[in-house]
Amino acid sequence: MISFPDDFLWGAATASYQIEGAVDEDGRVPSIWDTFSHTPGKVAGGQTGDVACDHYHRYADDVELMAWLGLRAYRFSVAWPRLADLSFYDRLVDALLAKGITPVATLYHWDLPQSLQDEGGWTNRDTAYRFADYATAVHERLGDRVATWTTLNEPWVSAFVGHGSGRHAPGVTDPAAAFTAAHHLMLAHGLGVQALRAAGAQSVSLTLNLSPALGEPGPAQLIDGLANRLFLDPVLRGEYPPDVLEHISRFTDVKLDDLPTIAQPIDVLGVNYYSVNRVLADPGSPGNPEFPGSEGIAWATPHGELTEMGWEVNPSGLEDLLLRLTRDYPGVPLMITENGVAYPDAVADPDRIAFLDAHFRAARAAMDKGADLRGYFVWSLMDNFEWARGYDMRFGVIRVDYETLERTPRDSARWYRDVIARGGLEG
Ligand code: IFM
């Protein structure tokens, strides 16, 4: 038996726009993802989050499924566009607590109110201050029952997929805007931490999507800088890495006076891990606009098995990442706030079981070597709206039939249930 600590936080994760639906109900205002998904050509099949999994109305049944799974914790995000009426989250949190499931709330998982985008969105410094006000308001409503808060989910994606390649809302393609957005997102995080602490939050965190960069040293250092250190170093060390800062200065200036605010101490770092970046020097390559300034760098053919998303399955990358964080940013407890996989739709999903099994083992191996890992949230509880890829990418351990909205636990859900019940993996 490969066992995990008794208090290990086994969980599952989702996000508001990906599952809730009910986009016009109870005073919800439009978000950048409503605008983007309703813009022809932006999302596969013209799909939108208008209905999604209808979790807004079916949350009670979904919490029953979480209880059946034996989840210790559930990571969800609050929709900023619902600020006028947060009573849905009251009901959700109460339902979770009634089942003994710890609510872990993320404040921003990409659904910026469109009204803020109309004022410049994350390229406008003021959005960071508006985020702190929003954090205060949500804490005021839920803070008596929610102890664990995450400010932002994956600011790299918001900044560089939203403003570099434009594959995500708001669909901007401007490197300077992408770096500016990244800085303002980090400022929002820091201001959000201050606001949450002032309100009495017990545990505050940030979730980053982190990917080891493998390959030739020069290209790997640049891509590691842009994917990982660009966020890790300001938040956890109060500084931009010199090589990254020099790179950014090719496009724009960032306000270094913000670094003390950005570097508020956090209680845990959330790690979303899916795969690695394999890169090599290729003088003719146009680069990748999600890594501005990466001209002359190409992405190498992934090794081994690929997921439906086309991502390399690489569990040892998770072990390496956890150990690197332990070494380079000591003293910060870690939580895997997302890990999971999209495979073709089936209820029998041995490949997903194998994927999770291998990644759980990698996490345990890192813990044996000193990583202070406190929990593991599978992405995702159920199939959902996979952003620009729409509903065809199925990440759930619970299947969703989008015609009937019926939920069916996959074999991986039963397997995960057993893992949680026994507190680990069979030998
Ligand atoms: O679905 C996303 C999620 O919203 C953020 N992290 C990665 C997942 C899979 O792409």
Descriptive notes:
It is a single chain. With about 425 residues, this protein is α/β, with parallel strands linked by helices. The chain has 14 helices and 15 strands. The strands form four sheets. An eight-stranded parallel beta barrel has the order 2-3-4-5-6-8-11-12, surrounded by six helices. The longest helix has 25 residues, at about 175-200. The model has no long low-confidence stretch (mean pLDDT about 100). The structure holds 5-hydroxymethyl-3,4-dihydroxypiperidine. The site of 5-hydroxymethyl-3,4-dihydroxypiperidine (IFM) has 8 residues, from loops.
Secondary-structure map with pairings?
Elements: E1 2-3, E2 9-13, H1 16-19, H2 32-37, H3 55-69, E3 73-77, H4 87-98, E4 102-108, H5 114-117, H6 126-142, E5 148-153, H7 155-163, H8 175-199, E6 203-209, E7 213-215, H9 217-237, H10 242-248, H11 259-262, E8 268-272, E9 277-281, E10 297-299, H12 315-328, E11 334-339, H13 350-368, E12 373-379, E13 398-400, E14 407-409, H14 411-422, E15 424-425
Parallel strand pairs: 2-3, 2-12, 3-4, 4-5, 5-6, 6-8, 7-9, 8-11, 11-12
Antiparallel strand pairs: 1-15, 9-10, 13-14
Helix pairs in contact: 3-4, 6-8, 7-8, 12-13
The chain binds 5-hydroxymethyl-3,4-dihydroxypiperidine.
